[in-house]
Write a structure and sequence with these properties.
single chain, Rossmann fold, seven-stranded mixed sheet, 9 helices, 11 strands, binds S-adenosylmethionine
Length: 289
């Protein structure tokens, strides 16, 4: 395991000797991995400050954004879910609140009613989606495991009165999208999708989601800057467990940037979000990006 102190894009000032990071399917004991964790998540320090593990390198500025624009507008249910997730194994996987706020804005901009979410974990992004869409809206929420959702998110989602909008499918995501596509009536019906799992398959998700999306529909892909590692020219500086996903992210970013079916913006919130919108005609340089 490389222990190169140079490779620590989200390094904390003070580092414990060892910390345990538990993901649903991963368990690493490594200071560098925890410090590196390429997640746009955030956690709270002993002083009650939000610690930025996103790409924005100024801690003060990140705190300012949260205090000024994000927290005052965050629903009490989202805050409760975020607080409840903080001590849960793999807490860093949760969507960062500033990235979540951007998603809420996008959901509103496209008048989203029918959505798909890939990667639920404890349900922060799922709850914000359920709160943003109308009462008769529907979210197909897919995760290989519903344990974290049942443990943390579901009781809060029930309290918020939005459970009826959620169809939780416990499965790997690709076959679920294939199943939806077996029914031609599903094509062109989705307003919004959020992809936050399984980097290896981002391009496969993209191809399938574009078929399910209506013209003008939006897909947000999370973690597309993978802790900033996509820009590292020397891969040996990237901790080994993150290299495969780094390569997949680089490949995905290249492919999606060249895809004329969509407009896109690469936004450096959290761990990097790629926002893409399905166009009705090829979107070429001549039409202004
Ligand atoms: C980064 S977390 C999602 C975080 C979530 N969006 C939130 O706001 O808290 C990724 C989740 O994807 C799930 N996952 C991993 N591989 C998957 C796959 N192939 N299909 C569906 N879900 C998967 C994991 O179980 C995990 O809960």
């Amino acid at each position: 395991m490389p222990q190169n102190p140079k490779f620590c894009p989200n390094a904390r000032q003070k580092q414990p000797d060892t910390q345990l990071l538990q993901g649903n399917k991963r368990r690493y004991t490594s200071t560098i991995l925890l410090n590196y964790h390429p997640r746009g998540g955030s956690s709270t320090t002993d002083q009650g400050e939000m610690e930025n593990k996103g790409l924005l390198q100024s801690k003060e500025l990140y705190q300012y954004i949260l205090n000024t624009s994000v927290y005052p507008r965050e629903s009490e249910f989202l805050k409760e879910l975020r607080d409840a997730t903080a001590d849960y194994p793999g807490a860093l996987m949760g969507t960062a609140p500033d990235a979540g706020q951007l998603m809420t804005l996008l959901l509103g901009l496209v008048n989203a009613k029918k959505t798909i979410e890939i990667g639920v974990f404890t349900g922060y992004s799922l709850l914000l989606t359920a709160l943003a869409i109308p009462d008769d809206g529907k979210i197909t929420a897919i995760d290989v495991s519903r344990k974290a959702y049942d443990d943390i998110g579901l009781p809060i989602i029930q309290k918020a009165g939005v459970e009826h909008k959620i169809d939780f499918v416990e499965s790997v995501a690709l076959p679920v999208l294939d199943k939806l596509l077996e029914n031609a009536e599903n094509e062109g019906t989705i307003d919004f999708a959020y992809v936050d799992a399984d980097k290896v398959n981002y391009w496969n998700y993209h191809e399938k989601l574009l078929k399910l999306l209506r013209i003008g529909g939006v897909v947000v892909y999370d973690n597309t800057l993978w802790g900033g590692s996509v820009a590292k020219t020397d891969e040996s500086l990237v901790p080994e467990p993150y290299r495969a996903s780094r390569r997949h992210s680089i490949e995905f970013n290249k492919l999606i940037a060249a895809d004329s079916r969509i407009r896109l913006s690469q936004v450096p919130v959290g761990d990097g979000s790629t926002i893409s919108r399905l166009e009705d005609k090829p979107c070429l340089k001549e039409s202004g990006m």
